[in-house]
Amino acid sequence: MRKLLFLISTTLAAQTIPEKVLKIIQANQAWTLEQQRSICEIPAPPFKETVRGIEYAKRLKALGLVDIRTDAVGNIISRWPGSSSPKPLTIYSAHLDTVFPEGSDVRVKAEGKRLKGLGIGDDCRGLAVVLTVAKAFQEAKVAVQGTILFVATVGEEGQGDLRGVRHLFTKELKGQVDNFISVDGTGNRVTARGVGSNRYRVTYFGRGGHSYGAFGMPNPAHAMGRAIARVADLQVPKEPKTTFNIGTVEGGTSVNSIPISVSMEVDLRSESAKELATLDERMRAAFSAALEAEKARWPDSKSPLEFKIETMGLRPAAEPPDSLPIIQKTLAAAKQLRIPIFATGSGSTDSNIPMSLGIQAVTLGGGGQASGAHSIDEWFEDTPDSYKSPQLCALLLLSLNPLK
């Protein structure tokens, strides 16, 4: 392997450590894939990541990590023993949870060059990449300045609402973390901005009654229909990208009954905290206007009609500039490794929390090729250069926590 122009100023002797780490990671590509496959066959449904977490802690211990513990919400936290001081403190992580319900078939099947399984890319690949860097650090006997914590978080997906990483930054390690790196999904993506999301369950409810005998009262389903129509007509900016969606609707008891209640689940997203707040306000106005329009349709009725909004999840948006040191170091490391990263992107990941708090953070893809995330058809294919993504993670860690 060509001699690398390393990202930090070190002695000539120390510069051989990064080269060793990179060579070990490349040599362990098959080992990484096996970690990915075997992790994926351990269930980790929403809010029930314990079994996978216990096994992951065992694997961290086997790779030399110390001070391994499970925090109050289920995150697995471990420390690289080659640390020399509390600062800088860097978290290197992936998430344990999947979107699939308890009882799902988690067996991984080989189909040609592809591995097919629930969560095989998101985020079994990330979990494997974290382990691969730990293995390389162990074999190369890496010792760094500051502290690196290898972490597996819970609750990244869906209604988990980032509860694991939120707990880390607001309670467990509040005010202590300097840098955050997460590995989520596949490919060579660099997520440097956080897409914020507000998720709500909106319920319209009234008295209900017979569709014929009680006709003439405000109908919760009709009110919700009016709300959906108003939402569908909202205009949102293309830049920064801002979106809305009504993903589920439910309620009622029978075709010949005026519903007592109906509900819908709403998802709002934007790269901009300002645009997200504006959209949220306009959505709420649409819900209220729909209620009033339905009541006005039946002015002689005394039957009540109301609505309520329940929060399902709030993920903060963040727009840190590409000039941040962690982003520049990521791009420099990618250039060293000849990884074709032409631009940073945005996404909804664990990094949203530290980004929103002004803490340097980036989410990296785990390499390889994949498709069908969050579906029963999810697959991953190892590529000849899959090892480069864990190499990128390793170089970034060593640039943030230089060698001793």
Characterise the protein shown here:
- This protein has 404 residues and is α+β, with helices and mostly antiparallel strands.
- It folds into two domains: 16-194 and 317-400, Zn peptidases (Aminopeptidase), CATH 3.40.630; 196-315, 2-Layer Sandwich (Alpha-Beta Plaits).
- Mean pLDDT is 95; it is low at 1-14.
- It is built from ten helices and 18 strands.
- The two termini are 23 Å apart.
- The radius of gyration is 24 Å and the shape is elongated.
- α1 (16-27) packs antiparallel against α10, α4 crosses α10 and α6 (220-232) crosses α7 (273-297).
- β17 (369-371) and β18 (379-381) form a beta hairpin.
- The chain has an eight-stranded mixed β-sheet with strand order 1-2-6-3-7-16-8-15. A four-stranded antiparallel β-sheet has the order 4-5-18-17, with no helix packed on it. A four-stranded antiparallel β-sheet has the order 11-13-9-14.
Give a short synopsis of this structure.
This protein is α+β, with helices and mostly antiparallel strands.
Distinct helical segment count: 10
Basic shape: elongated
Arithmetic mean pLDDT: 95
Distance between the termini: 23 Å
Could you state the oligomeric state of the chains shown?
Answer: single chain
Strand order of the largest sheet: 1-2-6-3-7-16-8-15
Unreliable stretches covering 5 or more consecutive residues: 1-14
Please tell me how large the radius of gyration is.
24 Å
Summing up helix and strand content along with how strands pair, one would put the structural category as alpha+beta
Please identify, by name, the CATH architecture of the largest domain. 3-Layer(aba) Sandwich
What amount of the residues lies in strands? 15-25%
CATH topology call of the largest domain: Aminopeptidase
